[in-house]
Records
---
Amino acid sequence: MSEYILQAKNLTKIYGLHSENEFEALHGIDFTVTSGEFICIMGPSGSGKSTFINNISTIDMPTSGWVRIHDIDIRTMSSHEIGKFRYQNLGFVFQDFNLLDTHTLFENIAMPLSLAHIDRTQIIQRVQAMAKQLNIEQLLNKYPYQCSGGQRQRAAIARALINQPQIIIADEPTGNLDSENSHELLMLLKKLNEDYQTTIIMVSHDPFIASYSSRLVYIKDGYIEQMIKRESLTQDEYFQKIVELNSAESRRHFQ
Ligand code: ADP
């Protein structure tokens, strides 16, 4: 059994393979994650952050190299197995929420449990308990378009967490939220990380949000260019280091 919850080796992603638009977005990245880490991925726009996070989390398949989650090579799974693996192990939080507009919040949140064929009584109990925790229990019969951005985001989080995943993948999760809701979401992620050792891999462009992580991974031009571990730094010291890294990188970009 590996000491890592997630491992990627020599990860390469080429879009438009063998076409005139062929573009290599990731160039042979090696990456490991230990259970309970809270990782923030930063980097300039177009550097490959979303491609990276999608390719390490079964959303997309790398062109070459391999990814193992819980020691299982995701390339060896059929699409049916990947679907099952996802709702058993991974929770996704996206910037645009990705809720289904034709389904109520209840149905949206229940989806991973329905897919796992959990029985109806248990589904109702678990959805209600999760909705209560996120303060949206009064909204379960509403449709996403009847809810505010913050409420929709909380429903998306409830859906991501309902199956108690060991890994949460979050791509700019606070991107569409005001500062109060961003703060709440961050506190929730931090709590899950601290109380349940849930592993979090999050993309953010905001150094303050990044300062809640335990490790910063800076991606540039399809490579991991730098990593900073928080270790014994205070959050403020860590934040300063992240700000310095970002401003040094943007200065280099404009020189
Ligand atoms: P980031 O998340 O850092 O903004 P992305 O991972 O979205 O970057 O994109 C990395 C690079 O890959 C960019 O140059 C982008 O234009 C390109 N890219 C992303 N998705 C596709 C795609 N589906 N087809 C072709 N090129 C893509």
---
Amino acid sequence: MESTAATEVAIIGAGPAGLVLAHLLRRAGIGCVIIENRSRDHVERRVRAGVLEHPTVALLRDLGVAARLDRESMTHRGVEFAFRGERRRIDFVERTGKAISVYGQQEVVKDLIASWLADGGALFFEVDDVVVHGVEGARPTVTYRAGGVEHRLEAAFIAGCDGFHGICRPSIPAGRLTLADRVYPFAWLGILAEAPPTTDELIYANHDRGFALYSMRSPQITRLYLQVAPDEQLERWSDDRIWDELGRRLPTDAGFELRTGPIIERGITPMRSFVAAPMRHGRLFLAGDAAHIVPPTGAKGLNLAVADVSVLAVALERFLRTGDEDGLVRYSELCLRRVWRVQHFSWWMTSMLHRFDEHDTFAREVQLSELDYVTSSEAASTALAENYVGLPFATL
Ligand code: RFL
Ligand code: PHB
């Protein structure tokens, strides 16, 4: 059996990039279809990011999908850094006039899917064998299998929002993309624990034993991370060992208490910086993790995905409404400017906060001096804060 359908934009991937793009296009009156290879349940349960930049929250509100976010998210007015047995705070609101929101990525995804489907949006889960064809011509197609049926989706454009391991980037001929890459010599072991957070801001800890991060998801759930070896096995970390190590690396002063509780989710995330350029090949446009990834130390991946599609939606709308190609031509260059700003910030935060085995006394002291400076100088803390809360999205 075979079925053929047509739309203006075929969106591959129902992560933050694909879903936000779909909402932006629908608001502009442009037809689109989303296909996703995992189940709805899987996509809605995948625990990942938790920090939403100021411009990301503004866009979600603008799209009318932030009612639950506004009720349930936690507004953080600053962040703390722990090092040399001290705690230092950077006040985002004082430095920039802006705050960030802590709200799980899977909650954003749930809200976007619910609203998309409630208004009759086309979204197909559990599709297999997704292949893009003819992107160098004027009428590309996507073929895929769903429920034993071969589907053929014709479109004016294809949006590759299928993440780092998706099929869109690899479908671009070798030699057309320039790749920039850094792999870090460590990974993050992350847990979600049923333990009420005892601070109302994140704590990034640089400790001789390695980096640790204290974060949260709700007044009942703590989110914690530990720097571990890049090839670390999860089985080697019992609950006791995880809590013990967190206790050693996180602050030990009287003002902080690490509450423990049942661990309800755990995983190991490799750390990598990666950019593929340009973010376009013919009528295929890459957005989000499909084009670039950052180490999570800057809390930027999701936000960068949203920033990309905010530009892509305008470029597609202009062309499809008026035939004006300028936005499509400038898409990649405009996005990559912000991508590289965020790449630098994420690399810098990663370099400043982790333990590097090759560090000698000189390198270690220079690292601690930078933390000291960034948390005490008004100029340097403002630079960190304006990057952390999110620089404005580019406009075409
Ligand atoms: P996603 O979310 O990976 O979505 C891609 C979607 O495409 C689907 N897919 C396909 N669909 C159809 N056909 C195919 N052939 C397909 N192949 C894949 C996938 O199933 C998926 O649903 O990419 P997107 O939309 O670009 O969003 C990017 C973000 O998910 C990512 O950057 C962030 O999660 C990164 N990240 C963080 N970002 C932040 O902004 N703030 C944070 O605090 C933050 N913390 C994190 C993070 C990522 C983490 N991990 C696990 C990678 C913490 C962690 C631990
Ligand atoms: C999280 O809460 O998952 C989180 C927060 C800050 C980061 C990375 C992840 O830098």
